[in-house]
Design brief:
With 219 residues, the chain is an alpha/beta fold. The protein contains 7 helices and 7 strands. 33% of the residues are buried.
């Protein structure tokens, strides 16, 4: 009986979430901006997707380069970006295909788990200007009791947030930023923290709600 009830509850939540989609990554954009200076020179957004974050960075940067390996999503990003914006886009696969820096700011949102972790962080470290800031919003495989507890808390909050964010606009469907391919993360938060602190001494990492973690490092 309990198993049947749980299955029905999860199925109902799944259908509710599908009817009220919202972008978990964009949820952290405001937090991300608070980690950055009010003004800076150059920025690189790795895995820029539809360009939402790149356009936000343009409000503070002299120039922003959005890089993504998906030609179709870049086309959508270009259409959504004003011609007078300091944002440009390039087709590039991380880590090896990224345009050389240095950059004052590098951002990487929900992309790192698609890439070789250590190799990518090493490349981003190399391209960051002295005094520059790297900000990562990433996904980790839940493993510890804390991970699972945060996941349980996030389930009802996810449904509530989706309902609040999508009221009156359900007909518009999923945001363009949510159409990119997805992949389950393989590294746990503990593994990510250990490797990140080895490569980026002084990096600040923290578990977050909605199945995310954050990393901030200053060169």
């Amino acid at each position: 009986m309990t198993t049947t009830f749980t299955a029905r509850l999860l199925d109902g939540l799944g259908r509710f979430n599908a009817a009220h989609p919202w972008d978990h990554n964009a949820h952290y954009h405001r937090w991300l901006l608070r980690q950055l200076p009010r003004r800076f020179g150059t920025a690189l957004d790795v895995g820029c997707g539809s360009g939402d974050l790149a356009r936000l960075l343009a409000g503070r940067a002299e120039s922003v380069l959005g890089a993504d390996a998906d030609r179709r999503i870049l086309a959508r990003a270009r259409v959504s970006t004003r011609p007078d914006s300091p944002v440009t886009y390039t087709l590039a696969a991380a880590p090896h295909g990224l345009p050389a820096g240095p950059y004052d700011v590098i951002t990487c949102v929900a992309v790192l788990h698609h890439l070789p972790f250590a190799e990518t962080l090493t490349r981003l470290r190399r391209e960051l200007a002295p005094g520059g800031t790297l900000v990562v919003v990433g996904c980790a495989r839940p493993a510890s009791p804390v991970d699972h507890a945060l996941g349980l808390v996030a389930v009802p909050l996810n449904a509530l947030t989706g309902w609040v964010k999508t009221r009156g606009r359900r007909a518009f469907g999923r945001p363009a930023s949510m159409t990119a391919p997805t992949r389950d993360p393989e590294m746990t938060f503990a593994e990510i923290s250990r490797e990140a602190r080895r490569l980026l001494p002084g990096a600040r990492l923290r578990r977050r709600l909605f199945w995310r973690y954050t990393l901030v490092w200053s060169a």
